[in-house]
Amino acid sequence: MNAMIDDETLDRQLREAAPYIDDDGFTARVMAKLPAARRERRWLRAAILIGLTVLGSGIAYLLSGGGRFVVAGVIQLSSFPIWLLLVFAFGCGLVVGAFAVIFAIRKTPEARDLARFRL
């Protein structure tokens, strides 16, 4: 038996395997009696998350002494040699790029098929 069955083949096999059983309208009656689907308030959730983020950031700013650590960090960063900053920026770019490539490859069907192999 083929262990690697794509989704379309599986869907076709499942549709062909189970013929429709006439239930004399039972399914339609049950579906009609179900309550209507509630509309989700996505804007409310987004507003709450943004509000809490702004509030938390403001509290952290005030508790940290008004952001003095940011000024101190920039002054310390300006004393680094330029070659070290370039190496750091290039390294960060490589790390971010590598993660992006890894996550992009994981989304492909070929990578999911490779995960099924036992090595």
Give keywords:
single chain, 119 residues, mainly alpha, 71% helix
Largest sheet descriptor? none
Distance between the termini: 19 Å
* Counted beta strands: 0
- Structural category: mainly alpha
Radius of gyration: 28 Å
The mean pLDDT is: 83
The number of helical elements comes to: 6
Helix content: over 70%
User: What series of H and E elements makes up the topology?
Assistant: HHHHHH
Unreliable spans are none
Assembly context of the chains: single chain
Q: How much strand? A: under 5%
Envelope shape: flat
Task: Give a quick summary of the entry.
This protein has helices at 7-17, 26-33, 42-63, 68-78, 82-106, 109-115.
Q: How are the SSEs placed, and which strands pair?
A:
Elements lengths: L6 H11 L8 H8 L8 H22 L4 H11 L3 H25 L2 H7 L4
Detailed description of the structure:
The protein has 119 residues and is mainly alpha-helical. Among the domains are: 38 residues; 39 residues. Helix content is 71%, strand content 0%. The chain is built from 6 helices and no strands. The protein is flat and about 80 Å long. The mean pLDDT is 83.
